[in-house]
Amino acid sequence: MDLLSGSPYEAYLYSYPHKTAYRAIEPAIPLRELWAEEKRDALSLYVHVPFCEQRCGFCNLFTVTGVEDDGVEAFLASLERQARATQAALPDARYARFALGGGTPTYLEPRQLDRVLRLARSLGADLDAIPCSVETSPQTATADALGVLREHGIDRVSMGVQSLVDAENASVHRRQARAEVEAAVERMRALGFPTINLDLMYGLPEQTMRTWLDSVRAVIALGATEIYLYPLYVRPLTVLGKQREKQRATAVDPAWDEARLAMYREARDLLRSEGFAQISMRMFRRVDVPRDAGPVYCCQADGMVGLGCGARSYTERVHYASAYAVGAKGVRGILERYAARTEAEHAVADWGYVLDDEDRRRRFVILSLLSDEGLDLDAYRSRFGSDALEELAELRAVVDARFATREGARVTLTELGLERCDRIGPALRSARVVARMNESAVR
Fold this sequence. Notes:
18 strands; Arc Repressor Mutant, subunit A; 2 domains; nine-stranded mixed beta sheet; alpha/beta; pyruvate-formate lyase- activating enzyme; 18 helices; 20% strand; 40% helix
């Protein structure tokens, strides 16, 4: 396995398996049965709001624009039915984390946002005592919306900024002015959010090293406590993907890869020099900001309860969700079906992926290795009764190539390995997952 040849930007693995590997679960599994043998004392609760005020040219998330209030209300009514069905199946659930994402949750009116957060509380999520994160955007991070979040104990807001150069944002079909970003962050700081995360993107059209580093310096100066650095991907069915298809440009330009890699390295070094610690390829956190002191949650072992059209739920052996689409027509069709679902229909898992033993092992390795904590070989052996390095040839190849190093019972990525996470992660996927993703007919 040659991880140095080819593009370092194959795919971003923020979950495993990807939703394009999901299929109909037949027969559908009742949630009560699905969760019966699961640990339920340290779950993560995630609510997905599939609405945005604009669709960025690079976006392949499950979201749609231009939804009127009656459509939002229909979604919220179904969300409440789903919550009731979930609570009936997991009456004793305890939550260690809460996140509200999308889409753009603050697209909702303040009264609707309050309704969603009250719904989370009704499920038993103590928002005042656990780490809570909500995604927002410069245009929707109004004083009223942020005020609702703060009243509910939300301690982290995350905002996609991408660039502080207006023309660079316009090049990826993103309407945003730098002044909007600065005003939104000022409102966040005035309300006292402990954690303000800002996302930046490198490899944008017309972006230069100078303008890229200017954006990084700008978000540092704004007082961001966390900064995520994302490489631009041009994916099928997105606006940029359709443009590339029209131009019949299929191969990735090696010069673009070199430029993205150089931008990543310069920004990484700049952030380190400015007092940020690197947590993963993408995430940097100010060293003077302590990690949250909430209940312990282990993403490799603890489950996730997902609510909302587009949300995923994880048990040890079954991941389930609504169907997935990228195109507006496909998303709207799935959203309409979600809005019509009854409480009984919400009480079963009928779309997802049943993990076999190999995928359970690979998921544990991937989620561990791609962050700063690394892979704990003893924890792996305790969970699966085997040695990860002996079992997975791909993992051995990563270590042999010096993309990762072993110290005692822990395997962690080297600096070269960190910058190639988007090659290493895909290399660790199972043949079954890859085949399903390749067969997927996402709309």
